[in-house]
Every structure is written in structure tokens, then in C-alpha cells.
Amino acid sequence: MTTMNAVLFYEPGVVKYKEIDVPELDTGEILVKVKAALTCGTDVKTYKRGHPVLIKTVPSGFGHEFAGIIEKVGAGITDFKIGQRVVAANSAPCDNCYYCKKQRYNLCENLNLLNGAYADYIKIPAQIVKHNLLSIPYHLTFEEAAFTEPLANVVHGAERSDIVPGSTVGIVGLGPIGLMFVRLAKLKGARVIACGRNPLKLKLAKEFGGADEVINLREVSDPREAIMSLTPEGKGLDVAIEAVGIPELWEAAIDLTRRGGTVHFFGGCKSGTKIQLDTRRIHYDEIKIVSIFHHTPYHVREALRLISEGLVDVKQLITHKMHISQIDEAIKLHQEGKAIKVALTP
After folding, report:
1. Which end of the chain has fewer CB atoms within 10 angstroms, the N or the C?
2. pLDDT (mean) for 159-167
């Protein structure tokens, strides 16, 4: 085994399925045979416009949500063995930088993100092996386990969103991340208002997430009024979560929040974009603004636990299954609003 097939990113809109060399292992590294990889919103954005963090050189591996079987282990590996079913996060803290020493592991200054899941094999760097390579419980499928990384981001986001039992939480944007926010908010005892434009996603907000109310933003003349009318005394949301990444929606989220409420800007906007804030509103109405990035080893483990215990039935989010060579078609399904998650297999 010296070569393998992999999807490589060359430039926005250009990815190629090619035969390349199987990566060599250094000390502490592991080679995983990919059994399932998932598409995600970040991949769709990267395909469209590149990515300043994920894509540092080209051609680059592509895809970062996956699970598989250990094919080979490097020197010094004692906790894992060939044939073991595993799932890995796409990064790990370095342990040594300023932010790691403050235990803000998601802000690690050396957080090199792993790409290359759309391939026969993927090499897991030693630091990820150390912190974020986990054994998959045998009752889970590889497709289910591959949701660990995206769910870990949402676990982190929900933890920092001030959601308590009885809160009225509004979630704008119902991609996979938004839908998982709906589910976690319900697990925390919130009353959830889910807002989107896609009938498939609105349906899943109810069936997968358990949303109390869904609003099709295409069908209401005044989205703000439609949302505010569903909040206690029309005062606004206790927590507003923007899960799209559009500056105008960031601004709108603030307008939907009650005095003393929390706004969570979770969706990442295009680099260089800006928003305008009403400083009087932020200050005198005591609006708390949070914006959470990425995950930590704790959140990765918590995500796998939630999936393993059946508290988040991620299978419902898989709308299509394809071979990894069909990545262009999979991305197109996302762009057309026809897919939630596409499970890709080599």
C-alpha cells in the first residue's frame, strides 16, 4: 500500500479526486482508514471562497469530519492498536502557548486544523492522537461517530449561551449546526423558536431538534414581529443564536433580544465584514454578546457521549450517501438547499 485516492482542494470551485501517496508516519502519529466522512457548512464555504485557516497551502486535503479504523501506528503509540474503531477531532491544543496555559484550549495559538478526510486514509498528528482521538463504542456506526467534531462545537456554544430551564431561545439558521443547537437547547430545558427558510430544515427542527415553534422566514412579512410575538409578553428572546454567518443577521439578532438577554454570534462571517451596533441599546439594555469558536478536548468527549447515549440522534441529519469522488455533487446539493449532511465513503 503506497498510494491512495483523495479529494484535493486547488482553488475556490476546483477540487480533484486524485491518486496520491499514502502519508508516512512520524513518532506518535496514526494512520486511519476512513470509513465515513461528512460534509459540513465550513466545507461548502471553503469550496466557494477558500478558507484562511483551513487551507494554508494548495493543493490541500479536504474534509475534516470523519471516523474510521486504525490501519497503522507510529513509534511510541501504546494506547491505540491496529483495527481499533476511532473518531478524531480536527485539532488539538499544543499545551504550551499563552492560551493553553490559561486553559482556553480552543484559542490555542498553534491550533493546526486537520484536513484530508475525503480520502482512503488520513494521518492523525501526534497532538490529536494525544488529546482528541477517541475509541468509538461498538453500538455506534461510523457515520454517527463522525458527528462528534461538529457537535463538539455546538456543545461548547450551548454551554456558553446562558441557556437555563424555561429560557426562550431563538435560533436563526437551520443548517446542521443550527439544528444541533435546537436539540441541545431543548436538552437544557429551553423553549425553542427555530427560524429558517428551507422546508426540509424547518421540518427537522421539529422532528430532530424538538423545536416548540418554527418560523418560515419566507412566509412572514415581518420576521421580527413574528419572532417577538412568540416571546413572553413580546419582550424578546432570552437567548438569540445566529448560526448562519451573515452580518445583517448578526445585527438582527441583537434587535430580537430582550433587555438583559444574550446574543450569540456563532455563525462565522466572511473575513473583513463589519456590523453596526446601537451602543445605547447594548449598554442600557445590558445586552450580553458572546461569540464562541471551535471546541476543547472536554467538548469533544461530551459530544461523543451525547451521541452514544442517544440524546442526539444524528442519523436524522444524514440526507444523502455518496462516494467521496462525488464531492462536487455533494457540495452542489448543499448549495441548492437539498442536503443537510452527506455521508461520503471511499
Report:
1. N
2. 97
What integer is the mean pLDDT of 227-245? 97
Residue 345's nearest CA partner among 149, 69, 9 is: 69
Query: Where, residue-wise, is CATH 3.90.180.10 in the chain?
Result: 3-152+294-345
CA dist 202 and 204 (Å) reads 5
Q: Considering the chain, what percentage of its residues have pLDDT values greater than 70?
A: 100
pTM (two decimals): 0.96
Residue found by looking up cell 430545558 in the block:
189
User: Grid coordinates in use for 58?
Assistant: 494548495
Confidence of residue 75 (pLDDT cuts 50, 70, 90): very high
Q: Could you give the strand order of the β-sheet that contains 191-196, starting from the edge strand earlier in sequence?
A: 213-216, 191-196, 168-172, 237-242, 257-265, 288-290
Fold of the 3-152+294-345 domain: Quinone Oxidoreductase; Chain A, domain 1 (3.90.180)
Burial of residue 222 (number of CB atoms within 10 Å: 0-12, 13-18, 19+): exposed
Residue 266 phi/psi, 5-degree rounding, is -95, -35
Q: What is the 3-state secondary structure (H, E, C) of 139-158?
A: CCCHHHHCCHHHHHHHHHHH
In the chain, what are the helix, strand and coil shares in percent, each to the nearest 5? 30, 25, 40
CATH code that applies to domain 161-290: 3.40.50.720
